[in-house]
Design a protein that fits this description.
There is one protein chain. By secondary structure, this protein is α/β, with parallel strands linked by helices. It is built from 14 helices and 22 strands. Strands 1, 2, 3, 4, 5, 6 and 7 form a seven-stranded mixed β-sheet that branches. Strands 18-19-20-22-21 form a five-stranded mixed β-barrel. A three-stranded parallel β-sheet has the order 8-11-14, sandwiched between helices. A hairpin with a 6-residue loop joins strand 18 and strand 19. The chain binds S-adenosylmethionine and iron/sulfur cluster. Iron/sulfur cluster binds next to helix 6. The site of S-adenosylmethionine (SAM) has 18 residues, from strand 16.
Length: 463
């Protein structure tokens, strides 16, 4: 999932931190939640090296971009952003510029050749080496570390929370991906799948709860294949991990992302149903509604398998919120096959979707095997049809909630007015409601009756 609102978000200075740091760093994050979570690990490593965070890159000694390669547009955004730093670096030649994340991994040393102002290139598994790389770069040596690892999970590093609302946080539970979807660059930029020590996940979640956080999202490219075997009690599956985290406190909400339709088990669904604090919401990327295209994508399920998963989720949790990812115009997709995607959406009735047109990524299996033969205007037109249909479904889904009452976790002031609170219901829908004159605060749970809706927000009154 890529949250458009957060793209390019910069780190806030550590709140209430009185110490004056000898040096300042600035970090901007792009791409999926995993990257935002990684930036919090990087912040923690830099903090240990005497770097304080700034939101103003002009005063930084070290400027970092945590980058995304998932589509060509994401890479272009980063290249444009680098240009903005050029002028500042001209005036302050001592300032170091580092590129982290997937684009660093994909381009490796080529990055230094292509973008002359870059001093440091670090891949997602090499953040522990940042202090050494910075020292080398300070001495005038450009540096690269893009080694991928089979076991790095940063389990022992306590992340510093990015511009946090103090209520919701991400906890990374695994890294990498073994799935090899043919369109996807992630297996090449983030390496092999590995699961993080379950105890360290539970401890980090407990610590967050004790510090006042009330919702955590367990993160991985494919959370349902979480498997941690080195425990005295035997192997821990994702269902078991969910239960362990849910048992920390009934006041701590649990979410997770992303699930792969081939891996989400009945065990996970029953665990979700059993605990009220595990949110009733699943992000289940479909990508295409046509079995031939799904095969070309190497998604390893069919249209029927996907629809049977949706049916199963609704049997076990009739009130479960559902969202998806869709790609339009994958290699050789016919009009009829595109219609299959629209009809899978009709049958599944997602509350929300992330929708993209196919962007060929160098080095992926699809780039090597198939020709990117759907004209750009056809991809765009199909994408528009997908978006229009989803908008209609979202409107209908949100409208159907009018009159219902939901438990909402208050996350803070609404974007539009500090006289309103905003927060999510269990289905992950944003709810906005007037504060009235009560003594409620961020992190409290309230019951809200829905009185009106748009296609992305519910409005209501506390009861
Ligand atoms: N692991 C997750 C999954 O399987 O859904 C997330 C992968 S990726 C960060 C998020 C989404 O980007 C994918 O689900 C897919 O819809 C989209 N995506 C990935 N590669 C793409 C490409 N080459 N062109 C267009 N969209 C792409
Ligand atoms: Fe990419 Fe597929 Fe892995 Fe998701 S599951 S990260 S789409 S290869």
């Amino acid at each position: 999932m890529i949250d458009e609102v957060r793209q390019g978000e910069a780190f806030a200075p550590f709140k209430g931190d009185p110490s004056v740091f000898p040096k300042k760093f600035y970090i901007e994050s792009y791409g999926c939640q995993m990257n935002f979570s990684d930036s919090e690990i990087v912040a923690s490593i830099l903090h240990g090296e005497g770097f304080g965070a700034t939101r103003n890159f002009e005063e930084a000694d070290l400027v970092l971009l945590n980058t995304c390669s998932i589509r060509e547009k994401a890479e272009q955004t980063v290249r444009n952003r680098l240009q903005a730093f050029r002028k500042v670096k001209d005036n302050n030649p001592g300032m170091l510029i580092g590129v982290l994340g997937c684009m660093a991994e994909r381009l490796k040393a080529k990055f230094l050749e292509e973008e002359k102002l870059v001093d440091i290139v670090v891949g997602p598994d090499a953040y522990r080496s940042l202090p050494g790389l910075i020292t080398e770069a300070e001495g005038g040596q450009k540096t690269v570390n893009v080694l991928l690892s089979r076991d790095e999970t940063y389990a022992d590093i306590s992340p510093i929370r990015l511009d946090s609302n103090g209520v919701t946080a991400f906890v990374s539970i695994m890294r990498g991906c073994n799935n090899m979807c043919t369109f996807c660059v992630v297996p090449f930029t983030r390496g092999r799948e590995r699961s993080r020590d379950a105890e360290s996940i539970v401890n980090e979640s407990k610590d967050l709860f004790e510090r006042g956080f009330r919702e955590i999202t367990l993160l991985g490219q494919n959370v349902d294949s979480y498997y941690y075997s080195s425990t005295p009690e035997g192997a821990i599956t994702f269902a078991r991990l969910l239960e362990m985290v849910a048992l920390i406190s009934p006041l701590l909400r649990i979410r997770f992302s992303t699930s792969h339709p081939k891996d989400i088990t009945d065990d996970v669904l029953h665990t979700m149903a059993k605990y009220t604090n595990i949110c009733k919401y699943i992000h289940l990327p479909v990508q295409s509604g046509n079995t031939r295209i799904l095969q070309l994508m190497n998604r390893t399920y069919t249209r029927e398998w996907y629809l049977s998963k949706i049916k199963r989720i609704r049997e076990i949790m009739p009130d479960c919120g559902l969202s998806t990812d869709v790609i339009s115009g994958f290699c050789t997709e016919s009009e009829e096959e595109h219609s299959d995607t629209l009809s899978v959406m009709e049958k599944s009735r997602f509350d929300m979707a992330y929708m993209f047109s196919y962007s060929e990524r160098p080095g992926t299996l699809a780039a090597r095997r198939y020709s990117d033969d759907i004209p750009e205007e056809t991809k765009k037109r199909r994408l528009t049809e997908i978006i229009n249909l989803q908008n209609a479904h979202s409107r209908e889904s949100y409208k159907n909630d009018i009159g219902k009452t939901f438990e909402v976790l208050i996350e803070g002031n609404s974007k539009k007015s500090d006289r309103d609170w905003c927060g999510r219901n269990t289905q992950n829908k944003m709810v906005v409601f007037p504060k009235k004159t009560t003594s409620l605060k961020k992190g409290d749970y309230v019951q809200v009756k829905i009185t009106s809706a748009t296609s992305a927000t519910l409005m209501g009154e506390m009861i």
